[in-house]
Amino acid sequence: MREAFIRDSVGGVNWADGSLSGPNVRESAKTMGQLRGIFRSQEDWSLIAPDRVVYRVQWIPPVEDGTEGGLNWGNTTIEPGMVGDEYFMTHGHFHEKSNRGEFYAAVRGNGYLVLMDHNRKAWAEAMSPGSVHYVNAGLAHRVVNSGDEPLRFVACWPSDAGHDYASITEHGFSLRVVCRDGAPVVIAT
Ligand code: PAN
Ligand code: ZN
Predict the structure, then answer these.
(1) Atom of ligand 1 nearest to the CA of 59
(2) Edge-to-edge, what's the strand order for the sheet holding 183-188?
(3) What percentage of the chain exceeds 90 in pLDDT?
(4) Eight-state DSSP code of residue 149
(5) From the CA of 76, which ligand is nearest?
(6) What spacing in Å lies between the alpha carbon of 63 and ligand 2's midpoint?
(7) Distance, CA 92 to ligand 1 centroid (Å)?
(8) Non-local CB neighbours of 130 within 8 Å, separated by 6+ positions
(9) Cβ neighbours of residue 30 under 8 Å, at least 6 residues apart?
(10) pTM for the whole thing?
C-alpha cells in the first residue's frame, strides 16, 4: 500500500503586512555602508551612518539555492529616507541566469520598480499597495521608496536565478528616481 500523510506547510504569510513566519524563514539586512557607490552623490552617502539599515529581506528557500525548477518566496522592506535628493532604494541586480524572471507585488508604501535591459534602456513602474509587477527575464531590477513610510513588497523568484550585483555596482542604472519640489521624478543618467 502507498503511504499517505499530511505534512507542515513551508511557512506562514501574514496577508495584512506580507511578513513571513516559521522555522524556514531567513532574514538579511542591507546597510548604507554596504550600498557604497549605489547612490549618485558619494558625498551625501558619506554623511549617513554606515550601519543605518536601508532595507531588510525575509525569504523562504524551500529547496537548496541553485536548484533548477525551485522557487523562493520573500519580501523586502525599504525604509523611507534620502541620500541627497535620491530616495532610499535596493542595490538592484540582474539575475545571473538571463532567462529567469520574477514577480513583485507591493504590500504597503509607495515607490517605483526600476527596470533596465542589457542595452541600458530603462523604465519605471509605480508601486502602491496591491500593484503586481512582472520582471521579465533579462532585466535588471531595483525598487525605490519615494514615500515617507516603509515600502514593502513580496517577491517570488527562481531558486537558480542567481544575483549579479557587480554590473550594477560598476555601471549603475540609466534611470534614477529623485525628489524635485517634494515629488518624485525620473531622470535619465
Ligand atoms: C529580491 C531582492 C531584494 C533585495 O528578493 O533580492 O528585494 O534587493 P537586492 O537583491 O537588489 O539587494 C529579488 O529581486 N530577488 O531576486
Ligand atoms: Zn531578482
Answers:
(1) 5
(2) 82-83, 86-87, 175-180, 183-188
(3) 99
(4) S
(5) 1
(6) 17
(7) 7
(8) 105, 106
(9) 53, 54, 55, 56, 57, 90, 91
(10) 0.98
